[in-house]
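can u pls check wat happens w/ 2-oxoglutaric acid
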Amino acid sequence: MAERRRRARVQGGWAGTPAGRPAAPKAPVASSLALAGARPAWRQKEQPHTQKQFVFEKPSEVERRVPEAGVIDKPGVYELSKGPTGISRIHLIPGFIDSEQADWMFEQLLQDIPWGQRTHVRQEISFEEPRLTSWYGELPYTYSRITMQPNPNWHPLLTMLKERIEEFTGYTFNSLLCNLYRNEKDSVDWHSDNEPSLGRNPVIASLSFGATRTFEMRKKPSPEEDGDYTYVERLRIPLDHGSLLVMEGATQEDWQHRVPKEYHSRDERINLTFRIIYPEPDGVWK
Ligand SMILES: O=C(O)CCC(=O)C(=O)O
């Protein structure tokens, strides 16, 4: 709205003055205030007649609006987009684990998973990832230029959850990336799970426990946008205690996701992302 008003101001012109601009205002004169009972001109009922008239000129360019983010919070299968790369599809199942079971699972996972801190070095400055992680699987997993070493020692609860998700989805997973968000300051930045070792059109099954955090998605811009994400489609998906989100098809190729930091305090949240990893270089696709 403010932007539209600003445009109207920019596009509109003032008639009756050279170059369509208003004449420079004259300094107020003491006697004119005295005549009007010490009221400035703009407070008088009858405004002094002016030659200047605002003429609205319709903006020639098409106005582009930043689309409002959509919200997905109901169970269901959603086709997010369809493109040359295929259909991007997600499946949201709130309450996949009922809340009583999710309570004790959360406590056990918090305590038993060997949570670790990854540290990145960029331009000789090191910084810690704003979350703790752990990796399970026979194969290593490299993302953001750091390799998680193989860890075949699956916790029995994780094996049980993997089997429950496999039965529900029909996919067989061989690896798991666990994330622990300790509080509202922990997050994961925009990215796609599109490492070569995940193969083409990876299926990711993401199970959440603990505090509800918003999982945000944004469509990758078309080549004409030159990497500008301003006008892309956006989605917000609250992931609460026990909810399962399955991403498949072209979702990783055509969309990015993140879990942003929050302004208000949040308790711990655990997110388990079950994946299928292929040994490289066989998993490498072009
Ligand atoms: O915590 C989440 O819900 C998302 C985690 C994530 O994006 C990832 O592990 O790649």
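The first strand starts at residue 13 and ends at 15.
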